[in-house]
Amino acid sequence: MCGRFVQYNLFQAIQQIFNIDKVSFEVIPNYNVSPTQEILAVVRQDNENKLEKLHWGLVPFWAKDISIGSGMINARAETVSKKPAFRKAFKKRRCLIPANGFYEWKGDKGNKQPYYVSIPSGEAFAFAGLWETWTDKERGEESVYKSCTIITTSASETIREIHHRMPVILDPKFHEKWLSVEIQDPKKLEIILQKGLIHDMKYYPVSKLVNFVKNNGPNCIKRVL
């Protein structure tokens, strides 16, 4: 599972790592990204990589309203090609979600210790994601709601001690293939999720400040003893 993560790189870093061609808004660091918030995502449109703002929690095009999105923040790699909520987006609307790290909790209920998880180099990376567009039929085009989900898989040995699931983090060599609109065969896409997965991770304990969405700053990822 992935229920909170971090996006603090400025646009210049995101542009370099993810080969962004266009952006039309200010990139603001977020140290405590939470479900339903607008997050940064890279999508492929008109033969260009574009940085978009999408709500975290995918709302299928057939949904009656956007409330379903709060329960759709993750899609399991094992079933994503078959689930009605995700299978169409899996074929045609995939995205990369830039991140610096994510949070997981371990311990007894009511007293869980949060951990910050990242790749060993400390550099930004990308979650494999899906995106969708939903339109309120009564209000028309003015009510377009763009949303996304993060694909998860079984945790690698490097973090299994704190959680049994983890987001799919793609090796940069697979970024363009994942975004490609030409690849729509579910089997080929499943291979990308398997072969492109980064397994090596590191983690350390952080303050329980991250338990509260209002706390959003560098102290959220500061190591504690």
What does this 3D model show about the protein?
The chain has helices at residues 11-18, 87-92, 175-179, 186-195, and strands at 5-7, 30-33, 38-45, 48-56, 74-76, 94-99, 101-106, 113-118, 125-134, 145-154, 165-167, 202-205. The chain is of the alpha+beta class. It has one domain (5-221): SOS response associated peptidase-like (hypothetical protein yedk fold). The strands form two sheets. It has a five-stranded antiparallel beta sheet with strand order 2-1-7-8-12, with no helix packed on it. A hairpin with a 6-residue loop joins strand 7 and strand 8 (113-118). The protein is globular, with a radius of gyration of 17 Å. The two termini are 25 Å apart.
Blueprint of the fold:
Blueprint: E1 5-7, H1 11-18, E2 30-33, E3 38-45, E4 48-56, E5 74-76, H2 87-92, E6 94-99, E7 101-106, E8 113-118, E9 125-134, E10 145-154, E11 165-167, H3 175-179, H4 186-195, E12 202-205
Primary descriptors:
hypothetical protein yedk fold; 4 helices; 13% helix; 12 strands; 225 residues; 32% strand; globular
